[in-house]
Amino acid sequence: MITGPLLGTCLLAAPPAGLGASVLPRGVGLTATAADSGRCAGRLYAFSTVGSVLGVLTTGYLLLPFLGVSGALFAAAALVFATLLLGKRLVLGAVGLGIVVLLAAAEPAQRAKNVLVGTSNGYHRIRVMAARENPQVRHLYLDSTIEGMVRLGSTAPVMPYQTHGVLIADAVPHLKRIFFLGGGTFSMPKHIQAKYPGVDIEVAEIDPDVVRVAEAFLEMPAGITVAIGDARRILKNARKEYDLIVNDAFHGVREIPFHLVTREFNRLVATRLSPGGLYAVNVLGHPRESRLVQSVTRTLAQDFRHVHHFTFMTREIQNIWILASAQPIPIGDPAPASPGAGMIFTDNHAPVEYLIALDLTREPRPRRP
Fold first, then answer.
1. Within a domain: residue 268?
2. pTM for the complete prediction?
3. How far apart are the C-alpha atoms of 272 and 285, rounded to whole Å?
4. Is 62 within the bounds of a domain?
5. Quick check: 287 and 294 in contact, CB under 8 A?
6. What is the domain count for the chain?
7. Does 291 lie in the same domain as 185?
8. pLDDT tens-digit profile of 43-56?
9. First CA to last CA across the chain, in angstroms?
């Protein structure tokens, strides 16, 4: 978990990086003469730099947003073979373009019948899948991680952690306004809206495609205010107080965006909570042994008088709701007293991914039957 990603990235990146690095000296060798070798090398280096900048801008602002990851790969491959045609390598260029076209046409056919959405953008690989045993239940996957589940025709949450999230809302007295960090399937906002029709619900979601998918395939209800963008920036610009702020933002396996768990962000949350308001953070890990859970808990304790854990079990890896408030919290249990356990996250130092990797290395692997 620690060295594997580094080694795997090197194995995948080293061959194309080496081939790419050989282009410039090869080009100089083919075009330079003894009299102008320096000028030729400088000119090619300038062209290479301009090409790199244009490649990054084109990929980030055109290919990924409009074609997704696979579409960008096919477009880049087609461009490579098109240059062969321009270089009068007609057979190789034509064969290569034909293969690219066939692969691009065959990609949708490889999708399973229960996959309703399969797309990629600059944020995620987004998939919506209907459960094989019950097509009315739909799963939302962001990259390789299941983000949530919905049952069509029902506002009740399907996943246990979402049910507990709704129970947290039930514990907040005089609930009038809620702010969610992260939309996903919008299951918790949908159920709370149905249960408390007068509550004002706002959701910050960074990926506009997630919102579009939720509207089209996951029965996202009308009446929920959705702001597209970074949740921290949106909350900072909000000039309101909220009775409940729910941090359910994930990006990858267990990973909460680091800037949403730092002490600076917690102070911002404290200024946006109403008197008696409650802040809830969803963290995945072991209740007592996870370094990430310990660190998020310890960081919250620096700025909130009361910190509770609202858990399902005691010994299993699970979604843990860490609750924080200036007032006594009516649900959950006081966070375990572990002096010195975990670290205090700051904007300058919040190694969330590293702590997650450490947690995964400590957890026993399930035994095969």
1. yes
2. 0.81
3. 27
4. yes
5. no
6. 2
7. yes
8. 888 998 998 899 89
9. 24
